[in-house]
Amino acid sequence: MKLVLASCTVRSWEWGDLDAVVRHANNRKVSINLRDRFPYPYTVNDARSWLESVGGRLPETNFAITVGDEAVGGIGFTLQPDVGYRSAEIGYWLGQEFWGRGITTEALIALTDYAFSTFDLSRLYAHVFEGNGASARVLEKAGYTFEGRMRKSVTKEGRTIDQLMYAMIRD
Ligand SMILES: CC(C)(COP(=O)(O)OP(=O)(O)OC[C@H]1O[C@@H](n2cnc3c(N)ncnc32)[C@H](O)[C@@H]1OP(=O)(O)O)[C@@H](O)C(=O)NCCC(=O)NCCS
């Protein structure tokens, strides 16, 4: 899969992305806003496990964000089980040196369209940790709607905080 955009490309993960993933993911300013399965420090073994887990997995729902064919971030969605099967949770991260250029917003808009056109989905949603103004802004710019606050729903580095729920619906 490959979506060539103005500021970046969203494409399938490749084994050759290993070093770039470690370089850009190993940053507490990135991990602090993500689930604990995105660790800090982020080691070569973590990147290897990640690439193993996504390599060849079908359907393919996790992708690299590349700039000049260097993997500088990731974006993907998780199809929900059981009665949630027409919903998917979308998530993303980007290496800090690339922040503020509109890259994630462009990738999110493109992957949202891809997900809705490729899968039988009625809903894409994201949960944003409170205080992550950049991610909330990305979702708003991409056309997602704020649906509510999930109070005290996650504990990150010992702090129990709210999450903001954003979603896009397509019938
Ligand atoms: C969130 C993240 C993906 C944003 O990526 P990005 O490519 O810099 O995003 P964009 O450039 O497309 O847009 C960022 C917007 O947030 C705004 N912004 C930045 N910091 C902000 C803050 N503290 N509060 C409010 N808005 C903020 C920017 O000004 C920009 O909005 P604008 O275009 O209206 O000026 C990136 O910061 C990141 O990887 N963070 C760590 C991981 C993460 O939070 N993932 C999402 C989990 S839900």
Structure description:
It is a single chain. The chain has helices at 18-25, 28-31, 44-54, 103-118, 133-141, and strands at residues 2-4, 9-12, 62-67, 70-79, 87-94, 123-129, 145-156, 159-169. By secondary structure, the protein is α+β, with helices and mostly antiparallel strands. An eight-stranded mixed beta sheet has the order 1-2-3-4-5-6-8-7, sandwiched between helices. α1 crosses α3 (44-54). The longest helix is centred in the middle third of the chain and has 16 residues, at 103-118. The chain starts with a strand and ends with a strand. Bound molecules: coenzyme A (COA). Coenzyme A is lined by residues 30, 33-34, 91-94, 99-105, 126, 128, 132-135, 137-138.
Topology:
Layout: E1 2-4, E2 9-12, H1 18-25, H2 28-31, H3 44-54, E3 62-67, E4 70-79, E5 87-94, H4 103-118, E6 123-129, H5 133-141, E7 145-156, E8 159-169
Parallel strand pairs: 5-6
Antiparallel strand pairs: 1-2, 2-3, 3-4, 4-5, 6-8, 7-8
Helix pairs in contact: 1-3
Strand content: 35-45%
Low-confidence stretches: none
CATH fold field value:
Aminopeptidase
The major beta sheet can be summarized as:
8 strands, mixed
The total domain count is 1
What is the radius of gyration computed over CA atoms, rounded to a whole number of angstroms? 15 Å
Average pLDDT score = 97
The helix content, as a percent range, equals 25-40%
Q: Quick one: CATH superfamily?
A: Gcn5-related N-acetyltransferase (GNAT)
Identify the bound ligands: coenzyme A
Oligomeric state of this protein: single chain
Helix segment tally: 5
Instruction: List the helices and strands in order.
Output: EEHHHEEEHEHEE
User: What distance lies between the first and last C-alpha atoms, to the nearest angstrom?
Assistant: 24 Å
Q: Which of globular, elongated, flat, extended, rod-shaped describes the shape?
A: globular
- The CATH C-level class name: Alpha Beta
The strand count comes to: 8
- List the strand order in the largest sheet: 1-2-3-4-5-6-8-7
Derived structural class: alpha+beta
The CATH architecture term is 3-Layer(aba) Sandwich
